[in-house]
Write a structure and sequence with these properties.
The protein is mostly helical. It has eight helices and no strands.
Length: 147
């Protein structure tokens, strides 16, 4: 069993936890969404998570496939440059990365209408990033094993 997620990144995301950031990072999109709309269950859930992060981290190490693609790098790219599709380029998903980049560039010229599909891409990535990374890591491991 390899390491997939970082406790340090988990706590850094926890600082913004009232938005659900650490919950999304640890593969809990439903509670992440609830935290987003309730400001971390009015701060109570956010505070309790301060003590739950180590167990959420261990759970991720058991649930997700470790490998060449770093969960931490992918999540940092999603958080800071995701609107430009940079996280998708990192995962080797060049086609959808180019679509996201194009949508981001078009936002001012489409009077914001391209922001709607761009937001849908972001929501999809927030909900499924860990599974996407696991799949890429499985594919890389399989390819190496086959050759």
């Amino acid at each position: 069993m390899g390491r997939t997620h970082s406790v340090l990144i988990g706590y850094l995301a926890w600082i913004f936890g009232f938005t659900g950031a650490h919950r999304f990072y640890y593969g809990r999109p439903v509670s992440g969404t609830i935290y987003f709309f309730t400001l971390g269950l009015l701060g109570i859930g956010w505070f309790i998570d301060l003590f739950l992060i180590p167990s959420m981290n261990r759970s991720c190490d058991q649930r997700y496939e470790p490998g060449e693609v770093s969960y931490d790098v992918a999540w940092i790219l999603l958080a800071w440059l995701g609107a430009f599709g940079i996280d998708r380029f990192y995962l080797g998903k060049v086609g959808t990365g180019l679509i996201e980049l194009s949508l981001a560039i078009l936002v001012p010229w489409t009077f914001g209408l391209s922001a709607i599909p761009l937001a849908l891409f972001q929501l999809y990535d927030l909900w499924t990033m860990n599974e996407q990374i696991s799949e890429v890591n499985r594919r890389i491991a399989y390819t190496r094993q086959a050759s």
